[in-house]
Amino acid sequence: ILNYDIMARFRRRTCIILLLFILFICSIMMALKTLRPDRAGFGDPFGLGLLPELQQRTVLLDSKQNLVNRAQGDTVTRVSNLHGIAVNTMKASMSSVKKLEEEFSSPNYNFHIFYYTWYGNPQFDGKYIHWNHPLLPHWDPKIANNYPKGRHNPPEDIGANFYPELGSYSSKDPTVIEAHMKQMRTASTGVIVLSWYPPGMADENGEPTDDLVPVVLDYAHKYNLKVTFHIEPYKDRDDRSMYHNVKYIIDKYGSHPAFYRHKTSTGRLLPMFYVYDSYVTIPEIWANLLTVSGSQSIRNTPYDALFIALLVEERHKHDIHRSGFDGMYTYFATNGFSYGSSHHNWASLKAFCDSNNLMFIPSVGPGYIDTSIRPWNNHNTRNRVNGKYYETAFSAALLVRPEIISITSFNEWHEGTQIEKAVPKRTGQMVYLDYKPHKPNVYLELTQKWSEKYRKEQEQWLM
């Protein structure tokens, strides 16, 4: 009996020890499983250290992991599938937008904001695009020799004096596009003026972006925004090519609910096109397209629209009138840089437009600095003065009672005119500018403030 009792206690003790050993092994395994390797690959969900632009969007990472994995595939496949991916992403979050709609102030369709989709990074484009902008030499070789040459080296070193909250993002990333639309809607802007080149064409530092237009339109519609086009100065742009461009845009995108149409004083709803560097082409060529008697006339056809020319010098106002344009804008966010961008000239320009049945669209901006790509251009820098420069520009614009105000820009980072969220950043010898002492969204808030002020003042103008 004694031996039996001893054996029973021995077995009990053995089972307890074995159980404790098993628990110990399980604990070790669980601890090892939760450790994050120092050198995780791109496909590893712990490899965020390699992706600074995604590091600041960790909340989105889990829900978009499938999208990120897909982005590693063949470039052609990525582009062809982008629209479908974006549509599926939007369907999943439409209910959240309905809730957010209650938090947003209504969009102001008289506030137009310039938007660029020319940015790229290795995760979505196979390489950096535009963030690695070259340092542009001065046209005078003697001056050029005094400044550095080469290119920027993202993601730490980018072609901008400020650093985006979203990092060195890709304009193809649907999460970035949606974040941009949300920011623009938060700012109470209403119309996105999308930088556009014809299919297969791009600026000298970028790549074609026309394939992105459907995605931008879809996300704009989701946030109740509209999209119009900023036609850039591509090679051989003239009356004939412009006719084909306008026809292409209206045929392909004109039926989309986010496609912008402006209601004229006669009650017509017409598309609108901003034409950058319009002064490069002589008035006689434009008149072929934009006057009723022109050889390539677009007037009174299904492709008729409102065409807005860029005014830089004072003499351009007469050329714009002779060309058959419907209005003018000033674009540059540098007060004093050109006749058109100088606030004190806006009253006379508005008077000229009123007397010639033209629209005057002044362009306001938060400041200007492009020394990251033009290191010799310090004299054109305009300090933001913690938002005061921006508010001064809005105040000057409202004084002339314009039908539309344009904003330069949402995200032209190279020229430091962006109102997109920026964050403080220091890398090696480089210290980026930032919006301190304010928050990253300060310029969105100021835009929203002046949008509401414009609405209230416009009601008084119309009384």
Automatic annotation (TrEMBL):
Instruction: Name the Enzyme Commission number(s) assigned to this protein.
Output: 3.2.1.130
Chief subcellular location: Golgi
Q: Which reaction does it catalyse?
A: N-{alpha-Glc-(1->3)-alpha-Man-(1->2)-alpha-Man-(1->2)-alpha-Man-(1->3)-[alpha-Man-(1->2)-alpha-Man-(1->3)-[alpha-Man-(1->2)-alpha-Man-(1->6)]-alpha-Man-(1->6)]-beta-Man-(1->4)-beta-GlcNAc-(1->4)-beta-GlcNAc}-L-asparaginyl-[protein] + H2O = alpha-D-glucosyl-(1->3)-D-mannopyranose + N(4)-{alpha-D-Man-(1->2)-alpha-D-Man-(1->3)-[alpha-D-Man-(1->2)-alpha-D-Man-(1->3)-[alpha-D-Man-(1->2)-alpha-D-Man-(1->6)]-alpha-D-Man-(1->6)]-beta-D-Man-(1->4)-beta-D-GlaNAc-(1->4)-beta-D-GlcNAc}-L-asparaginyl-[protein] (N-glucan mannose isomer 8A1,2,3B1,2)
Write down the InterPro entries for this protein, in alphabetical order.
Glyco_Hydrolase_99 (IPR026071)
Keywords on record: Golgi apparatus, Hydrolase, Membrane, Signal-anchor, Transmembrane, Transmembrane helix
Q: Name one GO molecular function term.
A: glycoprotein endo-alpha-1,2-mannosidase activity
The record's listing under CDD domains reads:
GH99
Name any one Pfam family assigned in the record.
Answer: Glyco_hydro_99
Task: Write out the annotated subcellular location.
Answer: Golgi apparatus membrane
Instruction: Tell me the enzyme class.
Output: hydrolase
Topology versus the membrane: Single-pass type II membrane protein
The cellular component terms of Gene Ontology attached to this UniProt record, alphabetical and capped at eight, are: Golgi membrane
Concerning its family, UniProt says: Belongs to the glycosyl hydrolase 99 family.
Q: What is this protein called?
A: Glycoprotein endo-alpha-1,2-mannosidase
This protein's encoding gene: Manea
